[in-house]
Design a protein that fits this description.
Number of domains: 3
Helix content: 40-55%
Strand content: 15-25%
CATH superfamily of the largest domain: NAD(P)-binding Rossmann-like Domain
Shape: elongated
Amino acid sequence: MLISKRTIIILHDLFMAALAWQFAWWARFNFEIPFPGFQLSLYTIPVVVLIQGFIFSMFHLYRGMWRFASLPDLWNIVRASVLGALGITLALFILFRLEGVPRSILVLYPILLIFFLGGPRLSYRYLKDRKLSLQPIGQAKRVLIIGAGRSAEMLVREMLRDGQYFPVGFVDDRPDLRHSEIHGVRVLGPVDSIAEFCRRTSPEVIVIAIRSATGAQMQRIVEKCEETGVPLRTLPGLDEMVAGAPVLRELREVSVEDLLGRERVELDWKAIESGLAGKVVLISGGGGSIGSELCRQIARLAPARLVVLDRSEFNLYRIHRQVGRLNPALRVHAELGDIRDGAAVERLLKRHHPEVVFHAAAYKHVPMLQEHVREAVLNNIFGTITLADAVRRQGCEKFVLISTDKAVAPANVLGASKRVAELLCEARNSGAGTKFITVRFGNVLGSDGSVIPLFQEQIDAGGPVTVTHPEVSRYFMTVREACELILQAGAMGRGGEVFVLDMGNPVKIAYLAEQMIRLAGAVPGRDVRIEFTGLRPGEKLFEELFHSYEQREQTAHRKIFLARHPEIDRQFLEARLTELRAACDHFDEEAIAGLLKTLTSGAPLREARASNVVSIVPGGGSP
């Protein structure tokens, strides 16, 4: 019968308690054999073992894993040893008033016990961390590590234990760490000298182990590393790490997201969860990039049911499976349908009675929509009207519209259609009933129709990488951050607001292309050429987040702003929408384009039509 590890640890600790007790007597009498009081020391061992064993269990010494022994474990050993000595002293005093027991033994005993218990634990961890590998050091891959913090320490410890990698040094800008060592590995110096360190240490790979690095810091590090020609890897952020997974398994190539990295967003998850927990949530366009990420995040917030609406059967099937894996207990309804189908939308809402609706369904490809104006209007405007009006009739609590920075001073059909969608949602917010909220933000890295997959495809084919203009720039954020802020804004909204997400600084698309080429191990202009093709129809050099007639105001969340603008003229808006619908029915694209221009020119805003703006109110609410 095999003995469990826990039993072995218990027996080890009890044996060490008896050994420390005997050794204290032996040391007290100058290591004589036999020493005076030898029989008394043996007679008192059961008392020592019984009391000390009880104290050990109080401090849970048997729960700690020797493999991960650390300072908290040592502190528990110190407390258990001292308290055990006091307990033994009290017991012996009660039994025979400590007659024949030298007082110095009661002081020596806990000191020796601390060493006898802590020594084997720390030695075991050291041997495990430095265990011999079957792979000779000469065959291990030489690694230079950037960063000398906690993440780097964990990484080196695992490398030394695994044997597949051999750390040759740390690179860190902090001057106080210069020439210090971590697990026997020297901190060589600052990032600016990394080329020199590579010549001295001949690494086969460089690993960036700074999980908290900002985009600017990552760009500087990557630029310095690219000069060396050594392959580059990095650790993901803490939010991306798989719990309990070995650190070495998490190493991955540096991505564009790392270079454009943004600081981690702090959210009020209690407020977000309280607004969604136990409720039926509907997500239109739930199979798209934004919609699917919303599905995944909301699935973790304990909604009563999740209704996913999409007209792509494959996207719907895919997100249905993903959410099922994330939360098997959640009831997910995958609904194949079109937001323009009024009868189907009405029937769906009556069947599921959603309380919160996130409207992410939209056409988003700029050049494509320039050629299909009518389809863009029917889907992005009248599809939104169909869903919004049905939601209001059903008495849903909240309707959150996902908008875009292209809706600001729109120069293309996509932006114009999304701007009109913003206006009509604000106009339908009457202060009672359904609360209509708009969230506006820029490009999402890796989203459907994003430039990044296109660039990657062009790089894989050997180029050229096509960029429309050397100066064109865009705002970027990750899909996870975008959806987290959408949820936060949805929780904050009271109806009628246009929330704008903090997008940081815009990024030049040419710079993005250059970095993607370098990350692929190529040199821009030499290995892969960048070709400028000229601005496409409806494309602007840069995007904006606020209209000229909007005032930017800070909200309770530092990453979310409120766009305050003049009151909406609802009658004017509805009249133009009626004309727009008629133009679509008659396939009159010239009239459609003219009405889009009128609707996005500021005409639906009363004070914006006047020479002076009299009052500014949030969203489309009343002053």
